[in-house]
Design goal:
It comes from Culex pipiens. The chain is mostly helical and about 100 residues long. About 40% of the residues lie in helices and about 0% in strands.
Length: about 100
Amino acid sequence: GWVSTIAPISGPTDGTDASGCSIQREKDKISKITANHPYNVLWAQLGDLYGAVGHPVKLSKTIICGSPQMSNTIEKILNVLSYFIRCSEIKRTVHVEAF
């Protein structure tokens, strides 16, 4: 099925998607589910964006450290993590310690 919190159901003009399923049938399924389980997709999207899922709201910070030579690898790790973790800010700090 389609996750309607990501995007509205739409498809080709003939009423079928790439797998041949009827889009109208998918819309009907979602309508039946929402009739029994009230669900506001806008509030769900907003909650997902702000990470406010659950009670109490949880906050976490992720710190990624590495040498300047690994800056490309660190950048790739940040890109992957930002896909899975909803983040409001990515702060880059260069900190050099002399040993």
